């Protein structure tokens, strides 16, 4: 059984009162997240990520198609689905600014029917886990964005859900907190929980996920491991070399197996070769010419994403 199973999901929003046309947020989406899997959903603004999370979180109903969480239908079996999922939607919604962090967690625990004795213990453990113990009894409205985000995560874990839906969970976090977040995702995986995580951050997806799904305009483009996505873009090897003499650039350009030669980052020359066999002779040419700053690599998830989604991917902001 999958943690999440989505088939043919459609959802549109009617035009606003001021006019305009209906917006299709999801246009026949299929997606599965295995038990214990960390799955990233990557896409630019308006791709449909939040709409999908909201349907899985049972707060929005699809127009067509089905969505199941651990085998339970999100529309027909609400009562079964809700305790299984923990949602972190970010922003200010769902946190009570006038209450302390601890009280927010107590409230949420009670709402989810966590036994009274356990509520205090769990809240204290989560506050510690998210580095909020020192501020546990301060009003949440005084918290920074990053602290609120960590409290959101703690809240999402209060009732021990088996499936976590995290919508842009690191938005607003500083880099240290974002790194801790990666550790947290690893821990959740070890605990056997499943995670569906939406993000704009390719490095984050690549670092934490088992598989990533690219979504754009309400349609799924690809689902694959970060590594597979990389090799989809190019089966080529890439060399980046600094200080390559011009005449050597020209010789390399016409060398068998070399596909492209262009500008790389920070003044480097970027050479793409079509297979590993072409790699060694080109590297030898460079080394023989005294080039010492050399790196070989394969394309990362970010390049795949940009190539599939195109320039619009660049508009994405956190
Ligand atoms: N309540 C709503 N009313 C009208 N249109 C909506 C509503 N919610 C979403 N949409 C539209 O549906 C599309 C998908 O939006 P959605 O929020 O799911 O995208 P997203 O991938 O989460 O983007 P972002 O990263 O900006 O949150 C967008 O065109 C959006 O304008």
Automatic annotation (TrEMBL):
Domain ABC transporter: from-to ranges: 4-242
Alphabetized GO MF terms: ATP binding
Record's bilayer topology term: Peripheral membrane protein
Entry keyword Nucleotide-binding: yes
Tagged with keyword Nucleotide-binding: yes
Entry keywords, A to Z: Antibiotic resistance, ATP-binding, Nucleotide-binding, Transport
Residues spanning the membrane: none
Compartment list: Cell membrane
Annotated family: Belongs to the ABC transporter superfamily.
Protein name according to UniProt: ABC transporter ATP-binding protein
């Amino acid at each position: 059984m999958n943690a999440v199973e989505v088939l043919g999901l459609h959802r549109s929003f009617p035009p606003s009162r001021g006019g305009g046309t209906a917006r299709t947020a999801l246009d026949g989406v299929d997606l599965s997240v295995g038990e214990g899997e960390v799955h990233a959903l990557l896409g630019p603004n308006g791709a449909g990520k939040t709409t999908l999370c909201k349907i899985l979180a049972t707060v929005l109903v699809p127009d067509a198609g089905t969505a199941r969480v651990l085998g339970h239908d999100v529309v027909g079996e609400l009562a079964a689905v809700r305790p299984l999922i923990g949602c972190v939607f970010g922003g200010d919604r769902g946190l009570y600014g006038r209450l302390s962090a601890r009280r927010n967690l107590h409230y949420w625990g009670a709402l989810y029917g966590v036994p009274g004795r356990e509520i205090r213990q769990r809240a204290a453990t989560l506050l510690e886990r998210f580095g909020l113990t020192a501020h546990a009894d301060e009003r949440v409205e005084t918290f920074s964005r990053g602290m609120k985000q960590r409290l959101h995560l703690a809240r999402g874990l209060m009732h021990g859900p088996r499936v976590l839906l995290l919508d842009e969970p690191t938005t607003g976090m500083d880099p240290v907190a974002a790194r801790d977040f990666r550790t947290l995702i690893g821990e959740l995986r070890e605990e056997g929980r499943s995670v569906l995580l939406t993000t704009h951050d390719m490095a984050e997806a690549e670092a934490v996920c088992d598989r990533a799904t690219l979504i754009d305009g309400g349609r799924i483009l690809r689902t694959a491991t970060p590594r597979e996505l990389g090799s989809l873009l190019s089966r080529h090897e890439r060399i980046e070399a600094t200080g390559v003499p011009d005449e050597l650039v020209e010789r390399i350009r016409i060398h068998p197996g070399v596909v492209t030669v262009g500008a790389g980052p920070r003044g480097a020359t970027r050479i793409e070769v079509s297979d590993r066999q072409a790699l060694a002779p080109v590297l030898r040419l460079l080394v023989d010419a005294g080039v010492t700053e050399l790196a070989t690599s394969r394309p990362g998830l970010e390049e795949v994403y940009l190539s599939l989604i195109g320039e619009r991917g660049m508009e994405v902001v956190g």
